[in-house]
Amino acid sequence: MDIVLIAGLWLDGSAWDDVLPELEALGHRGIPLTLPGQGDGATSASYDDQVAAVVAAVDAAEGRPLVVGHSAACTLAWAAADLRPDAVTGVALIGGFPTTEGEAYADFFEPVDGAMPFPGWEKFEGPDSDDMSDELKESLLGRMIAVPVGVTRGVVHWTSDARHGVPLTLVCPEFSPAEAQEWIDAGDVPELGAATALELVDIDSGHWPMYTQPAALAALLDEAARR
């Protein structure tokens, strides 16, 4: 099966390099995306541009792909379910949740010169990054891409209730499935609360399992693809 892979903020398609051979060994073709304004060389892009890139990848895939979003890009993956509910076999979210209707996509840190740079590892101390070596952090630091404010401050709108029926898998890295369920039950994640085919699965990793647990992550994505 084709699996569309969307990395979170500051990352391009190379974030999935260690996951691709693991997926291939399981019989899948990984399709890593480098998003507009986030590794394609452009210095400006909008949230809508990134959504369009995801939809284009779904349209170009063979059959009905699984769409995978990591961190903030969980919103982009869920946008595929919103705009192409009958064209995807399911959606997998890694360490993040779809943005609530009417809110900004990912306006988390102050921008500099029209883009939001990676704020440094100190912002992610603890469970997010405890499983990452200093060498890995240093390597990634040099590859982080500042994300245009047209993306981070873009307003999210959902259009089709059909998205709620798309098979949805939430991969829980730095938080547990039990914690995620508590947030859903409390109404903190409306999009997941409305999902009718949601499964929560655990992975023993921090926030970036594509680097620290690529084989385990690929195995969970394989299971999601076979649901």
From TrEMBL:
GO terms for molecular function: hydrolase activity. It comes from Nocardioides oleivorans. Transmembrane segments: none annotated. This is Alpha/beta hydrolase. Residues 3-219 form the AB hydrolase-1 domain. It comes from the Bacteria. Coiled coil: none annotated. Keywords: Hydrolase. The keyword Nucleotide-binding does not apply. InterPro entries: AB_hydrolase_1, AB_hydrolase_fold, Sec-Metab_Biosynth_Hydrolase.
